[in-house]
Automatic annotation (TrEMBL):
<dbReference type="GO" id="GO:0070069">
    <property type="term" value="C:cytochrome complex"/>
</dbReference>
<feature type="binding site">
    <location>
        <position position="240"/>
    </location>
    <ligand>
        <name>substrate</name>
    </ligand>
</feature>
<feature type="binding site" description="covalent">
    <location>
        <position position="99"/>
    </location>
    <ligand>
        <name>heme c 1</name>
    </ligand>
</feature>
<dbReference type="GO" id="GO:0042597">
    <property type="term" value="C:periplasmic space"/>
</dbReference>
<feature type="binding site" description="axial binding residue">
    <location>
        <position position="103"/>
    </location>
    <ligand>
        <name>heme c 1</name>
    </ligand>
</feature>
<dbReference type="InterPro" id="IPR009056">
    <property type="entry name" value="Cyt_c-like_dom"/>
</dbReference>
<feature type="binding site" description="covalent">
    <location>
        <position position="202"/>
    </location>
    <ligand>
        <name>heme c 2</name>
    </ligand>
</feature>
<dbReference type="GO" id="GO:0046982">
    <property type="term" value="F:protein heterodimerization activity"/>
</dbReference>
<comment type="similarity">
    <text>Belongs to the SoxA family.</text>
</comment>
<keyword id="KW-0479">Metal-binding</keyword>
<dbReference type="Pfam" id="PF21342">
    <property type="entry name" value="SoxA-TsdA_cyt-c"/>
</dbReference>
<keyword id="KW-0813">Transport</keyword>
<dbReference type="GO" id="GO:0016669">
    <property type="term" value="F:oxidoreductase activity, acting on a sulfur group of donors, cytochrome as acceptor"/>
</dbReference>
<keyword id="KW-0349">Heme</keyword>
<keyword id="KW-0574">Periplasm</keyword>
<feature type="binding site" description="axial binding residue">
    <location>
        <position position="203"/>
    </location>
    <ligand>
        <name>heme c 2</name>
    </ligand>
</feature>
<dbReference type="GO" id="GO:0004792">
    <property type="term" value="F:thiosulfate-cyanide sulfurtransferase activity"/>
</dbReference>
Amino acid sequence: MRLLSGGVTLAAVLLAGAASADPDPTATLIVNDQIEIATRAPAPDHLKDVFDTVQSGWLYRTEETRALQMDDFDNPAMVFVDLGLEQWDGVDGSEGKSCASCHQGIDSMKGVRASMPKVNPAGNDLWSLENFINACRTQRMGAEEWKWNSDPMKQMTAAISLQSRGMASTIRIDGAAEPYWEQGREIYYTRYGQLELSCANCHEQNAGKMIRADHLSQGQINGFPTYRLKDSGIVSIHGRFVGCIRDTRGEPFKPGSPEFRALELYVASRGMTLPIEGLSVRH
Ligand code: HEC
Ligand code: HEC
């Protein structure tokens, strides 16, 4: 076991995996009393030697936090979805266009979040949802690109992600996407920071255990973007990756970097049998 710092090992901050720390086996996610979203699923083939079942991060949260995601009136992320809808209809840039000018209603984005990240139309890069949005802004609207973790970008990804709620993932990890997936897997198993911890050290080997006061999940991204109570705001997938690498006292890659987009594809593939939750609530 690697040293955390001053002789503290990861084992010391992990309270041994008591059965009570495992997710509540009876919890079922039903949104607005209507939409049942599976939070457990058989592991995808490429992960079968690691997990039998993949589980949503929702299962690892307290009953109170879980409840917030079960009703759109209580879900604080919905305020940001409304702001995203305003952006959708807002004219911006030299061409005098809004997103709606070309795409019509936001429901035209149904299934889009479930397919991300994917190889771009030119076939020479892996793009996240944010890249597609910025490509339309710069190439089709004559508008400036939004910063990855800016408010308008997070509001827009929130509004677009909601359109895929409950849908199955359609990501591709073969063909042109395969090299990115391989790169992402490599990053997932690399130890970072002074603590020398990989994503897998926490989210694979110790999922279900308590780390300090936190219940460690499998680190799935099917619920992203997510509303974090701690931040009172929306957190992007790459924003979460930054936080986790900082916790290892490592120097994270930049949001939107090729490394984080590849990691996004690989992490998405670890939960590709789970439906898209759009939008989850975490503490
Ligand atoms: C020191 C342990 C640790 C390491 C290393 C770590 N994480 Fe995390 N991560 C956490 C904790 C604690 C949380 C919050 C509780 C939870 O959901 O597991 C979290 C949450 C997450 C979540 C949010 C899950 C959800 O459902 O809300 C994702 C995604 C994630 N981590 C991905 C990663 C990735 C990718 C890496 C590697 C770059 C990584 N983590 C490295 C401890 C870690
Ligand atoms: C001038 C027309 C036009 C405008 C304005 C426009 N788009 Fe697009 N957008 C397109 C076209 C064309 C495509 C590629 C074909 C397609 O997937 O519909 C596209 C693709 C996309 C995609 C990728 C869809 C997929 O399935 O891969 C997203 C996401 C997107 N646009 C979001 C937006 C957002 C958000 C805005 C406003 C900020 C916007 N677009 C403004 C024309 C436009």
